[in-house]
Amino acid sequence: MATSDTRLHFLTIHQAGELMRRGELSPVELTRACLERIAETDGRLHSFILLLADAALEQARIAESEILRGEYKGPMHGIPFALKDLYDTAGVRTTSGSRVDIDRVPSEDATTTARLKAAGGILLGKLAMHEFALGGPDWTTPFEPACNPWNLDHITGGSSSGSGSAVASGQCLGALGSCTGGSIRGPASLCGIVGLKPTYGRVSRSGVVTLSWSQDHAGPMTWTVEDTAYMLQAIAGHDPKDPTSSRAPVPDYSLSLREGIRGVRIGLPRHYFFDDDPSVNPEVVATVERAVAVLQELGAAVEEVSLPSLDYVRAANSVIMVSEAYAYHEPNLKTRPQDFGEIVRGRFRIGALMTAADYLQAQRVRTWARREFAAVLQKVDFLVTPTMTQPAAAFEGYDPTATVRGRSFTAPFNVTGLPAISVPCGFTETGLPIGMQIAGKPFDEPGVIQAAYTYQQHAGWYKTRPPI
């Protein structure tokens, strides 16, 4: 396990932004440092599907000129970032990690892509992912699976696999992931970074390839909580291109970057998240228990809460996901099934076996869960849980069915659409990261960010970088 590192590619968005705002760092210099880091490490990590080095340097030179003219746009100006390869990029191939879309070149940017560019961000390239956001580490796809920078023999989690790997290793300062059952928070937890799934509708999904339209979320993955707040600021807000996009006002998320949770009420759903279950690693639970004790020391009031719908929510998430995914991919599954990887093809085909009754029963569970979670969140401010049931698994002996068996600690918040963040809270005895999940009321990203920031600043896990 490495200690703090002050090389340029390990700057946070906050640190780099302050230096550039003061004229002490050039966007070109920072972009070159990231490109050098990618050249140094990506042969082992396989984070990138497509690198846009020349275009990134040109964007960096433009950003440098703008800042020198006094046209500083804010914290994302001049910041090198990368995109999970299901975010559309005008004139740039977007594959969704699949042979099916290997030659697909969108004519316009996703709204999120356009907003990050408008904020002055520098796009480094497109990141590896589990095929169509539902595959796994699958060698039958055209792209090598991304590796975990804490231990290259282990997975990153999915489906935003390259996003987790690239941010943790310092290849980019921030990335976007997408999340339908845990694909932002999962890799964040397993790679030791911060990942936020915003409230459903908070961030536009226009131009983001669909998996399950009623559960898909777009959101940031970064090294620190403050960096997540800056990226969210750039991409949040109503988009007329996305009919599910909310018109709720977007607050200034930087105002949430202050320490203080004294008097905050935290609910612990011990049943399901903290009780004894064969699919849950006891070391993960014990580590999160210690993190909860830290929150209590910082002044939070912790109480146990009951959410009986949790026993059914994982199944509801899966039924809705594969049903909607099959509806989206049905034409290609029928006409060119050989172009799908083995893992995702099998999962999509399960959707063809679901009945209308299955789908409607899952939606009934969803309604029940939403009401139940809403009632509990009238009594407490946040729910705190482990992010994942296990630390990162090894590639050797990896079981692709493991992610669909047993419990999911992230899926309940996709089903309910509530905001949830994963923040690092420790390591296993073998040095693999563990994440703590903090979830809140609809559109209370400010509260979730503040709670996570307070813990981060006190615990200091962000000071430790992976050994690669």
DSSP summary: helix tally: 14
Looking across the biggest beta sheet, what order are the strands in?
A: 1-3-2-4-6-5-10-11-9-7-8
CATH superfamily: Amidase signature (AS) domain
Give the averaged pLDDT, no decimals: 97
CATH uppermost class = Alpha Beta
Rg on CA atoms, Å: 20 Å
Report on this model:
This protein is of the alpha/beta class. The protein has one domain: Alpha-Beta Complex (Amidase signature (AS) enzymes). It contains 14 helices and eleven strands. The chain has helices at residues 13-21, 27-45, 53-68, 111-118, 161-169, 185-191, 225-235, 270-273, 282-297, 310-335, 342-353, 356-376, 411-416, 445-459; strands at 48-51, 80-84, 122-127, 174-179, 194-197, 217-222, 265-268, 301-304, 382-386, 420-427, 433-439. The chain has an eleven-stranded mixed beta sheet, with helices on both faces. Strand 2, helix 4 and strand 3 form a beta-alpha-beta unit. The radius of gyration is 20 Å and the shape is globular. The model has no long low-confidence stretch (mean pLDDT 97).
Which key terms come to mind for this protein?
468 residues; alpha/beta; Amidase signature (AS) enzymes; eleven-stranded mixed sheet; globular
Task: Describe the structure in brief.
By secondary structure, the chain is of the alpha/beta class.
Tell me the layout of helices and strands.
Layout: H1 13-21, H2 27-45, E1 48-51, H3 53-68, E2 80-84, H4 111-118, E3 122-127, H5 161-169, E4 174-179, H6 185-191, E5 194-197, E6 217-222, H7 225-235, E7 265-268, H8 270-273, H9 282-297, E8 301-304, H10 310-335, H11 342-353, H12 356-376, E9 382-386, H13 411-416, E10 420-427, E11 433-439, H14 445-459
Parallel strand pairs: 2-3, 2-4, 7-8, 7-9
Antiparallel strand pairs: 1-3, 4-6, 5-6, 5-10, 9-11, 10-11
